[in-house]
Each structure stands twice: as C-alpha cells, then as structure tokens.
Design a protein that fits this description.
Helix 1 packs antiparallel against helix 2 (77-85). The strands form two sheets. Strands 1-4-3-2 form a four-stranded mixed β-sheet, covered by helices on one side. A four-stranded mixed β-sheet has the order 5-8-7-6. Strand 7 and strand 8 form a beta hairpin. The chain is α/β, with parallel strands linked by helices. The protein has one domain: 2,3-Dihydroxybiphenyl 1,2-Dioxygenase, domain 1. The chain has helices at residues 16-26, 77-85, 95-100, and strands at 7-13, 30-35, 38-42, 48-54, 66-70, 89-90, 101-105, 111-115. It is built from three helices and eight strands. Residues 7-52 form the YycE-like N-terminal domain.
C-alpha cells in the first residue's frame, strides 16, 4: 500500500515567483495548481509533486535538505544552464553527490540533486 502512495513535498518560499521560475523554467516542471499563496509543481503523471507555500518567515534549509531526482543518465548541459538562468546556483554537495550528480540551490536555499544514477543503484 505505501509503495503505491503518492508523495507531496511542501516547502515555504519567500517568493512564489522566484520559486516558480526555478522549478518550471529551470527544471521544466509544470504548474499543477495555483491558488493565492500556494503553488504546486510537478511532472504530469508522476507520483509526486512539490507544494510551494508563500511565507513571511525565511526558510532555513540545511545542506542535508535534498530533493534528489534520479535521471539514470548524464545531466544535460542545457538543463544546468536553464537552472542557473532561472535563479539556481550550482553547489558542491560532498564527495558522493558530486561524483554521482550535480547539485543546485534554489532561490530559498533548498538543494536539488540531479543524480546520474538510476533509482535502483
């Protein structure tokens, strides 16, 4: 039952516009829902989505607050360029993740790892 469950990850953001730009124009996710101070982004048909909630309190992510996407192949240079242009910052993440992927920090300080490994590795 749990293996088939869908997953929502909710995060506060100081700027919905900046967060939307990073996750949609940068990563390529779609806006799935929008209402007032709430934005949900994800890939159509995926079993997960990211909920971004406008907040007056600055998020306080740590270096271990990672969202990892397993691409099962190389990270496209154009994707890295789009993420940077959309407000992301390429960030070192330690020996393991630097070997097996590329890490970006979003406008709120959360880290996105694009792993070159497959999920089963």
């Amino acid at each position: 039952m749990i293996a088939a469950a869908h997953l929502r990850i909710a995060r506060p953001t100081l700027s919905l516009a900046a967060a939307e730009r990073f996750w949609t124009a940068g990563l390529g996710l779609d806006v799935l829902f929008r209402k007032d101070d709430l934005l949900m982004v994800g890939a159509p048909g995926a079993a997960w989505h990211l909920e971004l909630v406008a907040s007056d309190v600055a998020p306080a992510p740590t270096a271990e607050d990672l969202l990892v996407l397993y691409l099962d192949g190389p990270v496209d240079d154009a994707l890295s360029t789009r993420l940077t242009a959309a407000g992301g910052r390429r960030t070192p993440q330690g020996d393991y993740w630097d070997r097996w992927g590329v890490t970006f920090t979003d406008p709120d300080g959360y880290r996105l790892v694009l792993s070159t490994r497959g999920w089963s590795n």
